Amino acid sequence: MPNVRGDGMRGLAVFISDIRNCKSKEAEVKRINKELANIRSKFKGDKTLDGYQKKKYVCKLLFIFLLGHDIDFGHMEAVNLLSSNKYSEKQVGYLFISVLISADSELMRLIIQSIKTDLASRNPIFVNLALQCIANIGSKEMAEAFQQDIPRLLVSGDAIDLVKQSAALCLLRLLRAAPDIAPSGEWTSRIVHLLNDQNMGVVTAACSLIEALVKKNPAEYKACVSLAVSRLSRIVSSPYNDLQDYTYYFVPAPWLSVKLLRLLENYPPSDDAGVRSRLNECLESIFTKVSEPPKSKKVQHSNAKNAVLFEAISLIIHMDSDPALLIRACSQLGQFLQHRETNMRYLALECMCLLATSEISHDAVKKHQETVVNALKTERDVSVRQRAIDLLYAMCDKSNAEEIVQEMLAYLESADYSIREEMVLKIAILAEKYASDYSWYVDVILNLIRIAGDYVSEEVWYRVIQIVINRDDVQGYAAKTVFEALQAPACHENMVKVGGYILGEFGNLIAGDPRSSSQVQFDLLYSKYPLCSVNTRCLLLSTFMKFINLFPEIKTTIQDMLQNDTNIRNADAELQQRTVEYLQLSNIASADILATVLEEMPAFPERESSILAKLKKKKELPDNVESPSKEHRHLPQAIVNSADGASSPERNGGPSNYGSASMDLLGLNSPTNDGMASTNNGINSNGYAPQPQAPASDMSALFDVFGSPTQPNGGDFGNSASSPPGQKSGVQLVSESNIKKFLFRNSGIVFENEAIQIGVKSQFTPTQAIGQIELYYGNKSTMPLTNFTVQVHNTEPNALLIQAQDIGPVIQISAQVKQQFNLRCVTVFSQTPTVRISFSMNNFPMTIEAPIPVFINKFLEGAAMDGETFFARWKKLSLPAQEAQEQFFAKYPIDAASTQEKLTSIGFAVLPNIDPNPENFVAAGIIYTGSTQVGCLLRLEPRRQDSKYRLTVRTSNEGVSKRLASLLKDEF
Amino acid sequence: MIQFLLLFSRQGKLRLQKWYVATEEKQKKKLSRELINVVLQRKPKMCSFLEWKDMKIVYKRYASLYFCCAVESTDNELLILEIIHRYVELLDKYFGSVCELDIIFNFEKAYFILDEFILGGEVQETSKKNVLKAVSAQDVMQEDEAVTSALEEFGLV
Description:
Chain A is of the alpha+beta class. Chain A contains 41 helices and 17 strands. In chain A, helix 5 runs parallel beside helix 7 and helix 12 packs parallel to helix 14. Chain A starts with 9 loop residues before the first helix and ends with a helix. Chain B is of the alpha+beta class. In chain B, the strands form 2 sheets. In chain B, strands 2-1-5-4-3 form a 5-stranded antiparallel sheet, sandwiched between helices. A two-stranded antiparallel ribbon of chain B has the order 6-7. Chain B is built from 5 helices and 7 strands, in the order E-E-H-E-E-E-H-H-H-E-E-H.
């Protein structure tokens, strides 16, 4: 046991040793429970507990809490310690409170009372302790209670420096919690003058406070500019040994320097010429020091020196007025680009991005293009490469766009998966922004699709179509190029979409050449057709319909194709409906009407590219997906958004994408704009094909053909809209494989059709073997859903208890009804329970049978352990029945970060540095059921050369091993 | 401003955590677990900075312990790195060549020292001497109290 300073607590040290000696997690939990029981009984029974003992037990509780266990008692005892007259007891009490008590605790009033007493103490150490506690909790309530006391301490003549320092930062923290308590009036000048304080520590602390106050009210605190400049100048010009302990590795007061520079960034360059030139001298001198030979070889020396330099550069960029300094900054950063330390290269790239935005230094930055491109190719750390991409993006202009885009495209082929989508967006933006020749732009986008089709989001390919439609000079070229691109035997589906759309509009421009005649174009597109997803096929159907208009000579070929069973009897309602409608249209409508209906798309209104918006959004995406209000402009709503909606183009076409950014791009705010196939319902308003707002005349032509489109059962084709044959009397089944995404998350869409959307949101507490699932039924149709009933089918009622909340029989138009299910896992279960949802819509009965997304892994909680423990347990579970193994092809690109994320979201604790092969993953967890606990170990071995995985699961329960392995198979 | 600070071992065991913005307990657990995984996966020669969520992470490994700060994206990375170093120096000076065990067994001291150095997510005192003076003033008070209570126990006062 190491030495303990101050007055050690022996009992605590013994307890910590005990915990460390525990061989397993179970033993540790056991030891902790024993201790908790002991402490509880001590607190309850023993009235004679002295201060020392109380302190010791509170400390133990704190330790247990910090190990990650919940603590639900002892708070009162900790609060009692605050009023002890012994410092050591008080201190532990305060520590417990800072770490463990939440701001809304009912004990807060007592705590505030104790703090008040200590703040008034004559002993500055007590005062300091109280201030630290206020700063650590920093709640609104605290802010209100102490808004008088703290500013008083801060400027008091009696308070010692240490107290002033704490008071400054304490006030800062309270300001963040309650901005309205900012002191003003007479306080202002007294606070500003803290910058002149003799004690550097006081200035350091006060500087942070002043910056926050300045942000709120720059005018009031303007006096701080000249004070800060002169303070900075004194620091920068002082010999390093003048500042004694405030010199850090031969750099005078780096923290204070940086804080002062940052404070100055809140103001424009000073009006006072004297102040301005003084600041310039400081900045020059900071540059000079960096170029002098170092006073120490220690990295701390150069880090501190460069930290000040980077802050100075940031101020220079902010002022954006002195060309000499800007150019000097640029050449200094240029040197750093080749620094031997990765950290410096990273920062140089990052900082240069800012320089590139200044008109003055933009050209100077461009001189480093080659170095940056080189960084992109040679840096080993992806975060550095990311910076290089950002910088290339920032330094790009008309003069170097072709080169930079070319380099980025070249890098895209080998880029990390994690940054591909962002790169694609950036390339697309640059290509559009700086294209002098739009055929170059078309080439770039098609290259993007070829190289990284999976990462090309809808925004990108919609945009290229918009641009082609709006510029007649590029249409012929575009048609020719997509035609050539489609010749490739395996081309990305996004290529088929773009190609299909463009040929549908402009195929006639290249049909004169017998090598790309109408028949050849049709054959080419149709050869891709069977392999495409439903929404791409829908798009292609529209293309073929347009072909009937463009190329009357192949009308019968196309009609034959439509009449083919795979189309006219397709199980997918949307496909079938389109086919039927298009076929009818081609039969009924005269050539004139056809020409009107299928007229070339009108130009899109010019607007800012929404790819930019997407890029901005992407940065903040991951945490926002669950916020319910976002992106829900369209009714009906589900409470959840499909989280993958924004990231993967394949999944993007799915009906859950109501109101995503892609719609905005095309101005499709109302489903009626969506063209002909969707007259009766809104289900394909989600971007099967980009459609500009059709002029009113087109719409009326459409209505003439179909009669009244508003009554689902009225017109010739209405029937197929709401109840396609083949689904008429049957039950719509959602298979388990469709909901396997819920292995990894707890919310999303379970099912959706034109009538109803079923969403789910759930939470599980594995350690208690319980969970809640909420299903949300949203009525999307134009009629109320009546006779609404939900029946639970649970094949293992003894293993999994499910209790369903009752719900009403009607769901109104656009309404959403929530049904809660309480679950309890009694023992291991292997079947997924289902719900059978029945209702009538306009007297038409519908039934949907869908699994409830609860798998055994929902009761799995990660268990961290070291390598030794892991291997010991692995060996223990060596019976053949305890192991299950699967081999499968990688379904997604093999990427360590996402695999890790998946394993974690399944519930496992991923254990790093255990498997001798760093590519492999090992993970562990425990499944908690009411009756047993099942320890689960997993090993996942990716094999890059043939993109396969081998998955091995070992658990103490045969069923669990099999079930987990089969569930996780094919999910990576 | 520092958002939070984590100390954890190479095995991913959390040794110390300090949060400078109000965060729910559940969220704390989630964030630290995620972040520890991210940092442990990085290779030795990689850059000490990375973007994570809407924050910047600055970390450095000392022997078996990782020191990891989550800061705002506008903070000065290099200086945060030196904040970490100064904290290590403080611990080292206080414990006399500090090791992971010192921090495990004296976790409360590690917190007390941190509170003297950083408050509300900002550096309060950069002088090593002054921080250690404040901490040892605490120790002196504790020891005095210990002596007094021992004397009381034996009826000597």
